[in-house]
Amino acid sequence: MRFLINFALVLLLVACLVVWTLLPWYAVLGIVVLLALWLAFTRTGALALAATRIGIASLPQRWGASSVIVIGIAGVVGVLVAMLAMGEGFKATLDSTGGDDTAIVLRGGSQAETNSVITRDQEPLISALPGIARGADGRPLSSPELSQVVNLQSKADGTDTNVQFRGVGPSAWALRPELKIVEGRKFGPGLREMVVGRGAQRQFAGLEVGQQLKLANQSWTVVGVFESGDSHESELWADVDVLGPAYQRQAYQSVTVKLDGKDGFKKLKAALAGDPRLKLDVSTTRDYYAKQSQQLTTFLKWLGIIIGTVMAIGAIFGALNSMYAAVAGRSREIATMRAIGFRGLPVVTAVMLETMLLALLGGLLGALIAWLLFNGHTVSTLGNNFSQVVFQFRVSPELLWTGLKWALGIGLVGGLFPALRAARLPVTEALRAA
């Protein structure tokens, strides 16, 4: 029977922790305000506050055991926030790529450029469709593109990594005004020249302006560096009509277009659906790149939660051991408080508040470490196109708040059982043992 009661209590705690981690900030603030009012304006609360002050005053005498709680929880929060910051940074990079004013056309049923094929005779038909904006020269703002994965050496460890080598049409620059040449110049049409993203240049060797790369048994000259603040900074760009023959690619993979006004996407989608020669799909570039980030972001999120949970279990056991030791060491003190009128609830609250304070310190320390070490840290990972995407860790206030909630949740579980033991400690037995 006792086993069933303990098992039910553990399940209840797990359910409470899940609810706790999902609470928004204003709900947590409401709980804190209610607790503060109870401590300030009720007799039981005042007794709990007085008992808490006594426990906190004795912390310097048992700082070694208390530091186990702080350091353990700091490690949990640091790792959790770092893992979530990786997913957040990757998602933010791809979400910032593209917009609602441009669209990408792929072969019907294709989820990414890697498995899409658009024949060269289809490209003029696509460019002539309604819904596509035209430039000052009257030509449609349309860029046929293809992507080739090439191997470059990583600056970090010298290993070969996959990098996206993108061939673009002349209108690619007008379609992506956020892309700016910051060093050198644009590649010349019809020449084996390339421009490289700043992110790619930082991560991969041999991409300085003026250097030559041997790709497809041909020499390519790096003539410029661009910045765009999105996933394109991970790429190398060249003339699509030079890149295609170099890799014996007879077709394009996608066509990116500028949409003509608010109704441009609807017109283009309807025109594609109504032309039996074009079995193609279209989506805005914002939607396309958001979908590309979804799978990896979800994976990184759950990986962080799983690793954080495993570490949290260890931190909970550390908190349990430390608080059980603290309760045992303070048995005379707790028994004396019980003898002079402190009932069970104030004692439970005092031990819980003490543990939560240590957990809060650990959470703040872990959040600070994660922010100092990882916020803005540049890395690359494999994207859906089997090439590296360069992005930065993004330690947002929301992630820091999540880490603090995990810390307080660990403190809640780690302090509950020792607090209950302290409240049930027989006065005479405690005084005799002391």
From TrEMBL:
<dbReference type="InterPro" id="IPR025857">
    <property type="entry name" value="MacB_PCD"/>
</dbReference>
<feature type="transmembrane region" description="Helical">
    <location>
        <begin position="63"/>
        <end position="86"/>
    </location>
</feature>
<keyword id="KW-1133">Transmembrane helix</keyword>
<dbReference type="Pfam" id="PF02687">
    <property type="entry name" value="FtsX"/>
</dbReference>
<keyword id="KW-0812">Transmembrane</keyword>
<dbReference type="InterPro" id="IPR003838">
    <property type="entry name" value="ABC3_permease_C"/>
</dbReference>
<feature type="transmembrane region" description="Helical">
    <location>
        <begin position="31"/>
        <end position="51"/>
    </location>
</feature>
<keyword id="KW-1003">Cell membrane</keyword>
<feature type="domain" description="MacB-like periplasmic core">
    <location>
        <begin position="68"/>
        <end position="272"/>
    </location>
</feature>
<feature type="transmembrane region" description="Helical">
    <location>
        <begin position="347"/>
        <end position="374"/>
    </location>
</feature>
<protein>
    <submittedName>
        <fullName>ABC transporter permease</fullName>
    </submittedName>
</protein>
<feature type="transmembrane region" description="Helical">
    <location>
        <begin position="399"/>
        <end position="420"/>
    </location>
</feature>
<dbReference type="Pfam" id="PF12704">
    <property type="entry name" value="MacB_PCD"/>
</dbReference>
<feature type="transmembrane region" description="Helical">
    <location>
        <begin position="302"/>
        <end position="327"/>
    </location>
</feature>
<feature type="domain" description="ABC3 transporter permease C-terminal">
    <location>
        <begin position="305"/>
        <end position="426"/>
    </location>
</feature>
<keyword id="KW-0472">Membrane</keyword>
<dbReference type="InterPro" id="IPR050250">
    <property type="entry name" value="Macrolide_Exporter_MacB"/>
</dbReference>
